[in-house]
Each structure stands twice: as structure tokens, then as C-alpha cells.
């Protein structure tokens, strides 16, 4: 995974620079999401990896599948990636690009796992508390995971706050062993 990130980073930076120059952050997000979805499709990957296809044919196939939804710069990116045998990096490029975009826009994506669905009031209170703690705008999504019994697990990038009952029980068991 670290190797993929290392390989994808220069491409993500180039895309980010292009988006900054043109003010097309959302358009690039959409293009990268579409391309990532395409290269994640097993059938299309089988076609793209066929040994008889040249890099140009791979790029044309991928851009053809996407149709008119890609801008010219995105098509150029596909061509460069195909020439360098790096089409598989598109999901990682997209992820890195989204991280750079979020940092620029001072936003963070937060995933909250709870044992039960959060009410709108609870979501709003939690969102405001996270906004104050992280000092940035918060885009929150929630998931229900009954295995955590109670409480919540909050993930915001590298930050993980485990306030779940399962997590507290694990810490207690570990403390009792030592």
C-alpha cells in the first residue's frame, strides 16, 4: 500500500495543481471517481490488461467507456498513466487528491460507528463538538455496527476515538492482565 501511495503521489499532485490553476476541484473529483470505478471493474480490468493492447489502445478503451464525462485533462492523465503502465493507480490517485482538496478546503470526513442509529440531534451535537476539536468543517457519515454494544467509534483521517463499550471492556481486560 505504501508503495502505491509513493507511485500515485506525483500524479495526484499534478492533478491537484491543474485543478487549482483552473478552479476545477469538483470536476476533477468527479472525473477521478469515475475513472477509479472503471478500473475497479473486473471485466474492464481484464480487457485493459490484455497483452495485445498497446498503451494508446488501453487509454482509448478507458476513455471510451467513460464517454463524454471526462474533460481533456483527465483524458491526458489516462494516456500518461497508460503509457507508464500505471492505470491501476487511479483509485489511490483519487484518494490522495481528495485528501489534498479537503486540506485546502479545511474539511475532514468523519465516520461514526454506533451500535444504534444516531438521531438528528445527536448527529448535530457530535458534528459541532468534532468541528470545535478538529478546528475544521466536518462532513460526517454514520454507520451502525451492533458488535460495539454501545458508545461510538469515530474515525477522522488518522485520528480514531474509541468510545465504544467493546473498546472500554478490552482496555479493562488488558489492565487486569498486567
Write out key terms for the chains shown:
transport; Glutaredoxin; cell membrane; 178 residues; Peroxidase, domain 1; ion transport; alpha+beta; 4 strands; membrane; 62% helix; single chain; 2 domains; 8 helices; elongated
Describe this structure in words.
- This is ATP synthase subunit delta.
- Pfam families: OSCP (PF00213).
- This protein is part of the stalk that links CF(0) to CF(1). It either transmits conformational changes from CF(0) to CF(1) or is implicated in proton conduction.
- By secondary structure, the protein is α+β, with helices and mostly antiparallel strands.
- It has two domains: 101 residues, N-terminal domain of the delta subunit of the F1F0-ATP synthase (Peroxidase, domain 1); 71 residues, Glutaredoxin, CATH 3.40.30.
- It is 62% helix and 14% strand.
- Strands 2-1-3-4 form a four-stranded mixed β-sheet.
- Strand 1, helix 7 and strand 2 form a beta-alpha-beta unit.
- Helix 1 packs across helix 6, helix 2 runs antiparallel to helix 6 and helix 4 packs antiparallel against helix 5.
- The two termini are 34 Å apart.
- The mean pLDDT is 89.
Amino acid at each position: 500500500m505504501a508503495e502505491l501511495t509513493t507511485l500515485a503521489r506525483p500524479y495526484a499532485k499534478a492533478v491537484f495543481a491543474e485543478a487549482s490553476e483552473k478552479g476545477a476541484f469538483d470536476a476533477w473529483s468527479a472525473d477521478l471517481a469515475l475513472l477509479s470505478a472503471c478500473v475497479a471493474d473486473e471485466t474492464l480490468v481484464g480487457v485493459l490488461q490484455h497483452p495485445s493492447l498497446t498503451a494508446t489502445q488501453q487509454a482509448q478503451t478507458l476513455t471510451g467507456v467513460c464517454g463524454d464525462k471526462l474533460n481533456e485533462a483527465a483524458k491526458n492523465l489516462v494516456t500518461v498513466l497508460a503509457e507508464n503502465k500505471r492505470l491501476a493507480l487511479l483509485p489511490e490517485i483519487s484518494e490522495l487528491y481528495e485528501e489534498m482538496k479537503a486540506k485546502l478546503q479545511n474539511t475532514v470526513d468523519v465516520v461514526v460507528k454506533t451500535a444504534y442509529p444516531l438521531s438528528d440531534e445527536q448527529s448535530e451535537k457530535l458534528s459541532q463538538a468534532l468541528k470545535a476539536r478538529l478546528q475544521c468543517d466536518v462532513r460526517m457519515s454514520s454507520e451502525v455496527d451492533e458488535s460495539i454494544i454501545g458508545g461510538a467509534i469515530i474515525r477522522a483521517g488518522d485520528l480514531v476515538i474509541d468510545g465504544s463499550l467493546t473498546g472500554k471492556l478490552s482496555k479493562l481486560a488488558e489492565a487486569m492482565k498486567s
